[in-house]
Amino acid sequence: MAASADIAVNLTTSTVGIASVIVFVVAYAFVMAEEITHLRKSKPVIISAGIIWALIASQFIGDKEMSHAVEAALRHGVLEYAELFLFLLVAMTYINSLDNRDVFNALRSWLTSKGFTYRQLFLITGIIAFFLSPIADNLTTALVLCAVLLAVGKDNSKFISIGCVNIVVAANAGGAFSPFGDITTLMVWQKGILGFFEFFAIFIPSVVNYVVPAVIMYFFVPNEKPKSSGEKVVMRRGAVTVMVLFILTIATAVSFHNFLTLPPMMGMMLGFGYLSLFAYYLKITHGNSELDAPEKFDILRKVSKAEWDTLLFFFGVILSVGGLGFIGYLSMINNFMYVELGATWANVLVGILSAIVDNIPVMFAVLTMNPPMPDSQWLLVTLTAGVGGSMLSIGSAAGVALMGQARGQYTFFGHLKWTPVIALGYAASIYAHILINF
User: Taking the complete model, does pTM exceed 0.85, yes or no?
Assistant: First the structure.
């Protein structure tokens, strides 16, 4: 970020740098302890972001040129967050609207009426997540299927916990082989390093990454059937139209990026316009059908029900890590990795770092350094950055979002106990990639 102003910044050994790292570590410790403290995860990272940037700015008081560089870097981070925020807000609003129209309750009713066991439901939701993620992106996919999971298994917390872990792994693995399935693959594609169809070379490694932990976890899923109330749930008026509009919104977002080179967020906001107009129609025609809800459909109420803790958490993380990147820590780490360890081990470690820090800033650092690597290595780092975050619940946008959506049932420690199994799949996918693509 500072490089954009032709200014090299290295505060890694300064008091400001060390203090910033301490602040960030303490904040993340509180995030990890949310299950124990019940302190919402957004609060410590928002404080972390504010303190880190205040420390950076205090270092350059009186230096007009550097103060402008700090301001430019901060604005860049805010812009990145704004795009993610608007994308997520629209996705969450659609999910709340589908929930209001009883789509998920109807699906739950259908699944239970078919007599599927929890184990079969575990497989069904995981497979759908893997194949929907490359189209709808891993975050939106995880949010939609988690809502289904909560509806189907609401009486079994153990199933919801392991089912959410499965969805996170499946969505991240599915998003890794598609240019618009994950933010990191999108970054690599936008940079022009890999062509659109080159990403599909890591399809089989992505399958391996999902299948290995899924097969092991399958035997720990309760071998029972969900309780069925026996009543048939019918979707409310407008449900099918909202589903069609959601698909159209996703298509719009993808098209905006592919054909117009505009941020996907803009396509999502246009899709929000679709939903807003239809919400107006539902509101003025309320009461014309037996399938109407008791209350009128209010789009702003659906916006208000978005998972704001998750959205604010992303603000804190992106700005905190952006501050550490400005200080010079990310460049220092990547220099060490690619110069001292070599590309293969460095790219493996990128995935591990992605689970701890977040894959977006890690991939941004790699792309900024742009180490000379063959396409097979760029595919490897795309794979590891995409699926490495699955090892911790806080390592990917999908995991963070589901912690908010399934609060109290899918938690950091609930995910952590499956980390060794997920890590086994991570290692197996890397081995598969080396065998096939090297």
Answer: no
